[in-house]
Amino acid sequence: MRIREKVSRTVFNLVLVILFAGCVKFQRASLNPSQLYNEYNARRLESIELKKFIEEKTGKIITNWPPQVWDFELLALAGLYFNPSLESARASGKVAESAIISAGARPNPGIAPVGGINQTALGQAGINPWIPAVTLNFPIETANKRAYRIAVASNKTEVAKLNIVLTSWQIRSNIRSAYIELLANSARSNVLHKQLQILNKVKDAMEAQLAGGEIKATEITPVTFSIANTEIELGSTIRDLNSALSQLASAIGVPVNAIRRANLNLNLDVNTNLFSRFSKTNMIEFSLKTRADILAALYEYETAQSALQLEIAKQYPDINLSPGYQWDQGEHKWTLGITFDLPVFNRNQGPIAEALANRNLAAAKFNELQINVVSAMESAIVEARSALEQINRFSSVQEAQKKHLSNLEAQLKFGVIDLLTIEQAKAEFLAIEKQLVEAYISWVTALGKIENAFLLPLEKFIPAE
């Protein structure tokens, strides 16, 4: 008897081990806001980890670190390293990948032990009153439902992966916008400083003429007002410059002091070789085949399509096989049951109609997205061409004024004109330079819009020389 009890206990323990050996145990993970804040404040562009990341992404060994000058591309790579949005996108991708496991899981079989007793037979000699029984349940999915579930989850995973790419582009776009604001306000402040210097020289020359009785005091008043307005404009531009620094730091994901310490390249890029690429290659068609959001919308459509297939497959009921055994007062009895739903009152028409509508919606959204993308591409190209025309126009005027200024300087040497005339001519020359700077700002802004519209680096558009 003891041996039988030991064997029974061993078998029972073995069953428990088999059932629960693969169970996952909960492990608590805590967040420490103070630690996260301190880690954020400790971020530096000079980080060796950032250097390794840039080397890995570019495939180039960096010998001098940190770089003497930080240009847009380096700042964009820093954003991909520091910005927390990318980490969130990757985490969402892991969630989507985990859903494939859930979709592919097969239903577990079930067991239903039942204990019974024949109360009438209690106490009767030679009759065993016990009627123990056990029934097993084996669910069988039909109509390829598991494959459709996996297809839905797999397509969602592809969308999540493409969202990582889109998040990377959004980070790059935000950095470019802030960087252009920085470029623009830096260029404006430089011109305003020059304008302020020239206006002060004009004022000094006019005051000298006033002292000699050559002009009236009222003639100096407009110049004084111009100086005051220029100082106000310069102050506003410097405030915008500091705001752009903060925006750039936020877009990268570092404290603003990390940006203030960096030597940023604030020269306006006026590369005008962009449009020769459009004459050689249909960049719009090329971009539509490679854009992450277009590809994601296609996977969204395939997700809806697989979901529709799944709902159609649910018209066909699953089957449950239920073999059973009963020990009936000393007699062995076996049973085999088959259960399934009867599609009498509905054949899953509601979910099928909903899935069909979702597929139509996904198709409509894809069409809407593609049209909006093409419109954005064409609009960005038109804006860039318009800015380029302005650059050419103001450059021609500036060149003419430069020659005029050279002639005036030659006349000054021979005493034909006075210093005031020269300074006034310089002020007029600077006014054109100010317009040219705004045209350059419009150009780099349009280039940023082109990159955002095509989701392609600008290097893809500029032909190799």
Structure in words:
This protein has a single domain, classed as Up-down Bundle (Outer membrane efflux proteins (OEP)), CATH 1.20.1600. Helices cover 67% and strands 7% of the residues. The chain has helices spanning 2-20, 33-41, 48-58, 72-82, 84-104, 145-211, 221-252, 256-260, 276-280, 283-290, 292-313, 349-413, 419-454; strands spanning 110-114, 133-140, 319-328, 331-339. A 4-stranded antiparallel β-sheet has the order 1-2-3-4, with no helix packed on it. A hairpin with a 2-residue loop joins strand 3 and strand 4 (331-339).
What structural class do you assign from the helix and strand content?
alpha+beta
- Helices and strands, in N-to-C order? HHHHHEEHHHHHHEEHH
Q: What is the CATH superfamily?
A: Outer membrane efflux proteins (OEP)
Q: What is the CA-CA span between the terminal residues? A: 94 Å
Kindly provide the name of the CATH class. Mainly Alpha
**CATH architecture label name:** Up-down Bundle
Overview in brief:
The protein is 67% helix and 7% strand.
